[in-house]
Structure prediction request, 194 residues.
Amino acid sequence: MSSAPKAKPLQQVVLPPQRVGISAAVEECLERTATLLLQAGAASKQELIHALTLARQSHARGVPADLLETLCMAQGHSEEQLPAIIQSFGEKISIALTPSPPMIPFAGKLISPSAFYETFPDIRQLGGALLAPVIYAEDSDAIGTAALNPVAATIMAEEIMAAVARRYNIRPFVTAVVLDYASWTTITRKHFHR
Prediction:
C-alpha cells in the first residue's frame, strides 16, 4: 500500500530582524561601516575611532552624519576630494555586501514618494537618521532606497521590507542602491530638509 505524499507546510517568509528603534539602526550602521572600512584597509583603527566619535556626537545633537563623509573630513581631505574618496570608500564596502548595491547616478532626480512617507512616517524618520531616502515607491510592493553608504541603504531596505510585511502581510520587492556624493547631497536635502 502506498501512501499519498504528505503536503509540505508552507514556509513562513523570513524577514530580517527588526531593530529596536532608530538609534539602534544608526549604531549598527556606524559599527558595520567602520568594520568593513577597517577590513578593506580604507582607514586605520584610530581614524575610524575618531570618525565614529564625531558621527555619534553629531547624531546626539540631532544632526545625522554619514560615517563615510565624516571619515573623509576627519582625514583632512578637501571639499573637492570628497566625492572621489567617498565613492572609493563606498565601493570597498559594497564588495563585502551580498547583494552588492549598485551605484545609480540619476537617482537624485527622482521625485520624493510623499504618499509612502505619509503611510510610513517611521520609515521616513529612519531614512533621515541613516541619510538613506526612499527614491521610489510603486504602491507597497516595489520600493527603492538609496544612500551614500551601502550599509545604510541595506539597513534601510531591510527595515522597509519588515514594515511593509507587518502592515500588509506581503513581502515587497525592495532595491538598495548607492548614490554619488552630489546626488546624495541633493536628495537628502529634498527629502529631509538637511
